[in-house]
Amino acid sequence: MMGDDRDYIIVSDADFSDEENAVLNADAEEAERGYPLGFLESRRRGRPLEIGLTPARHKVQVRLDENRFRLLNEYARRHHLSQSEAMRELLDRGLASA
Description:
The protein has 98 residues and is mainly α. It is 50% helix and 4% strand. A hairpin with a 2-residue loop joins strand 1 and strand 2 (54-55). The protein is extended and about 45 Å long.
């Protein structure tokens, strides 16, 4: 990705909630057991069509000025989120207080 100025950090279990650790450990255990070839062939390419258990049917594109873009990326980095996750979280907060 061009212009990707991400800073990578090492994290530990203490950086995640008990619920997040349980999910991560369960996923790791499942991966270590291995997957049958049929499972791997059935995986769809592209972005997931759901966010958690909620279908994600709508795509919204937004143009940001340099300052908002920088602030979004700083927020995402601080909270260990992708840009999309950060935007959804911030949108939820804003709409909840509207």
